[in-house]
Amino acid sequence: MGTNTVSPEELAALVDRLRWDKRRHPYHGRGEYQATAHRALETATTLVEAGRAHTIVRTLRTAVDRVTRTLMYLDDSSGIVGDALQGLVDLYARALEQAPPANPKTLASWLVSAQFDGPGWPRIHLRAFAPALGERGIAEITAQVQARAADADPDSWSAQFAVRDFREQLAELTGDTDHYIAVLAEDLKNPEQYCRIARALTDADRPAEAVNWARRGLAHHPGNPYSDRLRALLVNLLLDDGQPDAALDIRITEFHRHPIAATFRALAATCDRTGDTTPLVPALDELRARAATDPYRLSELIQALTIAGLAEEAWSTAATHPHETGPHLLSSLIEHRETVHPADVLAPYRYLIQAQLADTGKYRYEHAIKLLRRLRAAHTAAGDPGGFSRYLAELRAEHKRKTSFIAKLDNAGLTP
Q: pTM of the entire structure?
């Protein structure tokens, strides 16, 4: 979209169409609204990038307000309008850098109201608005947040989150690492806070402290699924600090705590970085032992074997236990196997075809036809085209009562 094809008036017309009557059905006109919101964002972006922000800052704020309100009544399960709204508010911050407000305190009040009185969206990034706010605006937000904190309902999650979020963002804007960490440390209920602290210390060139905070976070949240990012950060910090053994210990400990393919993959990646693959041997032995007593663990073992580059063992295990392997993993293994060893994939393909025909899914017959085409190609590559014809004849006889399937076979040209 060229700058000569858009105008502030065109943006205003689009924003005028961003109104939404709350009595309207949440689905009716949703597609048109999505298109209008993204067209408004695209048009406004073109104008801002052309240096014409001063002509549209008020219109942009109106757009943000209208879409924010609309999302209270329009169904946005796809997130399309929400993405457009976030783009609009971030663009509004960029526009204000070109055309600063005459009174930063007014902007500060609008941001505080959006954070505390809004429905919870869009996300307000104070760093983006900092140039337009200046010292006066930031001081105003600080004062208003303090007032809001004093009046906030201690039992209201949204109110407490709004206070904490803005306090943390304001602390980050000060550039004082210790102050920022102190504010973050007031709420250590999740591993992400430890991540943020460790990153802040890393940025401040204080790696030893970053490692300590990351270790503390893992100690307090060992089983939290969100601890994976913190664990990865700690491993990277240790490797950057020349402590490969300590980094491997982190991965080994987590693998033993939760011996699955995902933790093995992380261990293997760290082994690759350190050049020491020794820990993979006992890890694989543990997965083999678990699979021997619990067949449902076989898929984890097969994935780990693949990660470790033990393709032959992975294939033989999967081919021997296709049911426990699962269709998705088995299909992936077949794709890698059939090019060089087409004869090996014939039985696994037949297993997948029968599994589709035993299923009750809507598209099971279509999937079975696709697999049959691939099986035919594998038979041909293996030098046994007649074997496919015999199998197909047996399949037709076995499933002759499935008339829809037989019809699809005929239409696909897969007759013997």
A: 0.87
